[in-house]
């Protein structure tokens, strides 16, 4: 296969970024009713079809789904009928049942589906995973991680996002499983909406902290904020019996050291996730093209999406009911 033909459903912020990253390597066909679609198609030399036409196309080698979250599961169930590999942004759905429905449809059709957990393709997260597996930091004893936004997203986005655990920390939950190779068994979460309607109206929070119990009784902590004014802060600390690895401790780390004479860090802080993970986004789409070409397999699956969403649901229940929640309460069939 020389240049595959990739259909892209949805050209919002993420869809536009993905289309631009794919354009040097693939012929694109895009579907989106918004005016941005025509402008993007002209910029990239892409073809425009409406959604129905694209779902009935016979010339596609792969599909990218970046439509609103509440459409992902149905889109996957329809798109698998084309029999070509699918890339879908996270989350697959805001509820576990819909995610499992999409998973079952993909498996029944024998169609590989890659989920947009881009941290699987980030150089630092990858090295942390490899070093832990190789015993470089000894036996894992504790993990600390977090994703902190510089400022909240618009109210209309927050209304449909599914909340801070499903929208934001789900990346940390996925990375925790992927990097450590361990499953979460129990969570305890607290959070506050700060009395602000943009969060309170949707049962969401602006600040949260979570304790997660992993297999082998390893503890992890996670925190998230919508008001980290210093910059976009994503980190993961892995503490072992021989050493500690830290993802996110670079020149863009959005902190100020008050130690006398300290000058670190000196770089400009990241302001959003697109800047921070630009290289990872490109790697994950190149990996998808390898899946399309039949030379690679999926590493971030819908099974991973289900597992991460279960953790998010457990956190939401824990915060609401002010108690620890075992994942067995959430997992269907446990």
Layout: helices, strands, pairs:
Elements (H helix, E strand, L loop, with lengths): L4 E5 L3 H10 L4 E5 L3 H10 L2 E2 L2 H5 L6 E4 L6 H8 L6 E3 L7 H14 L3 E3 L7 H11 L6 E9 L6 H6 L3 H17 L3 E9 L4 H4 L6 E8 L4 E7 L7 E8 L3 E4 L25 H4 L1 H16 L8 H20 L3 E2 L8
Parallel strand pairs: 1-2, 1-4, 2-3, 4-5, 5-6, 7-10
Antiparallel strand pairs: 7-11, 8-9, 8-13, 9-10, 11-12
Helix pairs in contact: 4-5, 5-12, 6-8, 8-12
**Class computed from helices, strands and strand pairing:** alpha/beta
CATH architecture assignment of the largest domain: 2-Layer Sandwich
Domain count: the total is: 2
Distance between the termini: 44 Å
The proportion of residues in beta strands is 15-25%
CATH fold field value of the largest domain: Dihydrodipicolinate Reductase, domain 2
Shape: globular
Q: pLDDT average, as an integer?
A: 95
Strand order of the largest sheet: 12-11-7-10-9-8-13
Quickly count the helices: 12
The amount of helix comes to: 25-40%
CATH superfamily of the largest domain: Dihydrodipicolinate Reductase, domain 2
H-E order:
EHEHEHEHEHEHEHHEHEEEEHHHE
Flag low-confidence runs. Answer: none
């Amino acid at each position: 296969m020389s240049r595959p033909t990739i259909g892209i459903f949805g050209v919002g912020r993420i869809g536009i970024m993905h289309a631009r990253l794919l354009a040097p390597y693939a012929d694109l066909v895009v579907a989106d009713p918004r005016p941005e679609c025509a402008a993007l198609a002209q910029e990239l030399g892409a073809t425009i079809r409406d959604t129905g036409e694209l779902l009935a196309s016979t010339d596609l080698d792969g599909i990218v789904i970046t439509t609103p979250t509440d459409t992902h599961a149905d889109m996957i169930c329809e798109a698998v009928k084309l029999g070509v590999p699918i890339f879908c942004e996270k989350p697959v759905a805001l509820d576990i049942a819909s995610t499992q429905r999409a998973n079952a449809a993909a498996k029944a059709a024998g169609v590989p589906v890659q989920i947009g957990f881009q941290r699987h393709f980030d150089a630092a997260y990858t090295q942390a995973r490899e070093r832990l597996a190789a015993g470089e930091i000894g036996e894992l004893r504790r993990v600390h991680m977090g994703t902190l936004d510089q400022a909240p997203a618009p109210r209309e986005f927050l209304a449909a996002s599914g909340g801070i655990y499903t929208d934001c920390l789900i990346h940390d939950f996925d990375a925790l499983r992927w990097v450590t190779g361990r499953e979460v068994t129990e969570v305890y979460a607290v959070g506050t909406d700060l009395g602000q309607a943009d969060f309170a109206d949707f049962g969401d929070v602006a600040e949260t902290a979570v304790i997660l119990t992993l297999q082998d009784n390893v503890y992890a902590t996670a925190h998230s904020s919508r008001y980290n004014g210093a910059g976009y802060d994503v980190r993961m600390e892995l503490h072992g019996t021989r050493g500690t690895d830290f993802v996110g401790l670079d020149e863009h780390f959005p902190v100020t050291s008050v130690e006398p004479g300290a000058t670190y860090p000196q770089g400009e802080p990241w302001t959003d996730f697109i800047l921070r993970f630009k290289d990872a986004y490109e790697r994950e789409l190149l990996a998808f093209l390898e899946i399309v070409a039949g030379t690679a397999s999926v590493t971030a699956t819908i099974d991973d999406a289900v597992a991460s969403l279960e953790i998010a649901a457990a956190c939401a229940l824990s915060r609401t009911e002010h108690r620890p929640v075992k994942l067995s309460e959430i997992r269907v069939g446990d």
